[in-house]
Fold this sequence. Notes:
Largest sheet: none
Shape: flat
Number of helices: 7
Order of helices and strands: HHHHHHH
Radius of gyration: 32 Å
Number of strands: 0
Distance between the termini: 97 Å
Helix content: 55-70%
Structural class: mainly alpha
Amino acid sequence: MDVRFRYLLVAILCLWLTAAAKAQDSPPPPVERVPTDKSAPPPKDNAKNPPRSDNVPAGESSSKQTQIDVAAPSDDVKAHPEAGLGNGDIDEFTPYNPMKAMKDVEVGDFYYKKENYNAAISRYREALDFKPHDAEATFKLAEVLNKTGDTAGATENYQAYLKILPDGPYAKKAHEALSKLKEKMAQNSAKQ
């Protein structure tokens, strides 16, 4: 009798779970439609209204208060040369996304460990696109550039890291790497 009771409980549980799953799959109840006001005048047809003579498109306000100026300031290129917008046009905009940047650093670390340095460089740079001035991505990019022999790029990124986090967790390594790179550059200059 005890075994039969257990089977009965299992059967009831299965039926209950099946019914719950079917209830979740059922379509939602129909949405009630709100009646429209039939006494309201019909919307105006823009084809019947010719454009205004003051060069303002139909349906837009001529008020200067509602117009938004999205142009860059005249001295923007001089004030921000790192933006690289010499002609004033923006070709592409990458939105700030620290989660994607963090994932790119993680994937860059994977490629670095596999000694696929070009892929690691690409991922660290992409991380910096999604989160500019990211200290970890900057330092790791400097490390991989140093590995590939790009001393100028490595020096630039080590210095950028130290500018972001002068006392950060990689500051000691960055100072050591910079001093080694300076020695290496001095030796190369002496040979020439």
